Every structure is written in structure tokens, then in C-alpha cells.
Amino acid sequence: MSPSPLNGIKVLEFTQIIAGPLGCQFLADLGAEVIKVEPLAGEPWRLAAQFIPTESKTFIGLNRGKKSLAINLQAEDSQQVIHRLVKDIDVVVINYRPDVAQRLAIDYETLSAIRPDLIYLDNTAWGREGSLADRPGYDIVVQAFSGMMSSVGKVSEQGAPQVGPAYADTTTGYSICAGVLAALFHRERTGEGQRVETSLLINALTTHMSQFQSLPVADQQQRDEFLHALETARAEGTTYGDFLHTRDAIVKTAALGNVYYRVFETADGAIALGALSASLREKIRKSVGFEHNRDEPEYDPLNPAQQVIDRQVTDIVEKLMKTRTTADWEQILTDGGVPCAPVKFVQELLSDPHVRANDYVIELEHDLAGPIFMQAPPWKMSKSTLDPSTASPPLGRDNDSLLKQIGYSADEIEDLRSNGAIL
After folding, report:
1. What is the residue-averaged pLDDT of the chain?
2. I want to staple 23 with a disulfide (CB 3.0 to 4.6 A). Which of 150, 173, 253, 317 is the partner?
3. Is the sign of the CA dihedral 219, 198, 169, 274 positive or negative?
């Protein structure tokens, strides 16, 4: 096997919580040396639900393969440390507000003057322009603003919107990694460094795909009807939960007869079916045992008479699916060539035979917590090594070794420590 794809690439990470740490963990998985810069107390995710001091499951799950530099960036001596360190750095990943980065002298202009071919990945919540640019933001607020939360359409018993997994953060993690890789490829060709920008918002919007885009010839009437209904509902004080029913009647009318791409309750659980072609829909009808004119030329999901038929078919199929167990339906549908899967809980998957067969679980040894089992990197490569071997670092573990590498003596390191510049 060849070395890891990013062997020899050094990354300096100024990020917290999920998106930045995940993106930099991917870079570490690909072989980069990632130095995570943290405040002296540790980044917030270390401190959330600690099971031992300065260690949490969430932090450990997002920071494997990295080194930890615990440093007070507001101290003048610390800024000198960063500037000496960046001379040998290929990539900086940061998610600070512009004013913070400038105040700490870690903005692109400052650092690229020290390392002209530096790649500087700048991640924000909202993007660098516009009225929200300087506003702080996390996954939940971006999910709210971007329409992601309302698209899922879940509400609490009190009618308030509910948020699911951190989709905006997670997709941004992949975007960070991809942006760095593209910039490294550009630098390999041209010798040029550059600043790369991404945000939680653009990645949340990307997940909407056709729902976000406008194609007037196809959707203008429906879009106008929806926006008029929304304006009216807000003027009348309609609750969020109640308006979801109006939205569904306008936007999702065609889904009334959707018994082909959805989740069904079974006798002992639930199962998901996925059929997006006429041939697969026919296989579902044969496997489950019902009739439906879904793929006949005259089928019109907006026709009121057809909607009555679709509701009847939906009721029939829902009742049929409850007559057998999930395992029974999985066997029947699989034998019939239908894409399907049981609805599982994430706690089941660590020991799932299929997950294990693909080596999607790795075991690492944490310096303080002992053995850790977690998801593997999201790639396998036939020619390159991709084998993360170290867990997330304890806070400040690598301070002394990193400073010695850039020429600090033992006495100078102790001076920095006694002055409160480093942990």
C-alpha cells in the first residue's frame, strides 16, 4: 500500500463543536497531521456531558487522529507561537467571526503573509456577506432559517418545531474536507494558496435540492399559492403546527398515493421501502399483494377522483403491512427485488453483522478513557493507506512537542506556561 493521500500535509485547526472538527477529522483520516488549537479550558464540546474531566463522547467522536495545542490566543506570546508555527503549515481551518480572527491575528491576510501558499478554509454559519454575516450561529438556528426544520415538519406535543440530527453541521464537515482537497490540488498544479469559504447555510440549502430551486415553467403556480397561503397564515396568527397541514396540502398533494417510497409500521416494528421506477413499483404491488393504477398513462395525482383511490390504496397497504413482522416483510420484499430495510436504532448498529462485515467499526485506544469503538472513515482506497490509529487527544497533550519542533527551548516553554499563554 502507498502512504496516506495527505501524508506530509499539516493542518492547523481553529474550530469547535461539529462542522469544523468533523471536516478536520476527515483530513486526519486521509493522513494529514492535524493540530487542534484549543483554549486553555478546552473547546466547548470537550466540556459537554463530561464523563471524566475535559473528555466527552461528542468530542472524542469528532477529533480522532489529531494533536492538541491548548493555548491562550489572546496573549501576545501565544500569537507569536502561532505565527512561528504557521510557517510550516499547509492548511488552516477556522470558524471564527471575521472580527475575532483579525483581533487574534489569525486572519487570512496575516497568516498568508507568513506562508504565501497557505490554504485557509473559512467556515461560518451564514456566509461572509449580508445582514446575518456577523451573527453567531449553530446547526439548530441554521436549520430553522434554511427551511430544513420545516421541511422535516416534526412538531412537539405543544406544536413547536422539532430538530433532528445536526444535518447542517455534518454536511458542512464534508464540504470543509472537499474544499481543502480541491485547494490542495490547485496548489499542486499552480503553487498558489488561497482562501476557501463555506457555511452551514449553503450546505443546508444544498440538501433541499429541487425544493430550493425555482423552475417557473414547472412550479410557479404552486410556489405562488404556497407563498400566498403562508402570508395569510402569518397575518391571521396561524400556529406553526396548523400551517404544516396547509403546506402539505399545497406542496405534497402528489404524495397521497405514495405507498412506494415511505416507511410502514409492521406487526413488530417498521420497514422502509424505496421504489422510484415503474418496474420497482410493480414489484412492490406483486410482493405485498394490491392493485393500483399508479403507472398507467392516465394517472393524475391531482385529480380529486384519483386522490380518493390513492387514499384507499394507502389504507389497504398500511393494514397489510401490519399483518406480518418486519423480518417477514424484509424477506418477502427482498425476494421480490424491492429495495427495503428495517428501521433500526443506532445503538444496534455497532454490533450489526453487515456493518461489521464492511469494517465500518474501528477500535482505538484513548490515552485516558481506554478502548473506543466508533465509525470508520467514510472511504476505502485500493492504493492508499487509510487507517486511523489514534483517538482524540487529551487537552494540551502535544503542547511541549509542538513547541520544541518550532524551536522553543524547555525554559521558553515553561515561561509560556507560567505566563498563562499555554496549558
Report:
1. 94
2. 173
3. positive
Buried b (16+ CB within 10 A) or exposed e, 94-105: bbbeeeebeebb
Burial class (CB in 10 A: 0-12, 13-18, 19+), 75: middle
pTM: 0.93
β-strand 261-265 against 194-199: which pairing, if any?
unpaired
Domain boundaries 10-206+360-418, corresponding CATH code: 3.40.50.10540
Cell of 68: 492538541
The count of residues in the chain is 423
Cα 307 to Cα 294, 300, 318, 387: the distances in Å are 11, 9, 16, 53
pLDDT digits (tens, 9 = 90+) for 89-141: 999 999 998 789 999 999 999 999 999 999 999 999 999 999 999 898 999 99
pLDDT surpassing 70 at residue 255: no
Q: What is the pLDDT of residues 28-44, one digit of tens each?
A: 999 999 999 999 999 99
- Contact predicate 362/376, CB 8 Å: yes
Residue with cell 412538531: 155
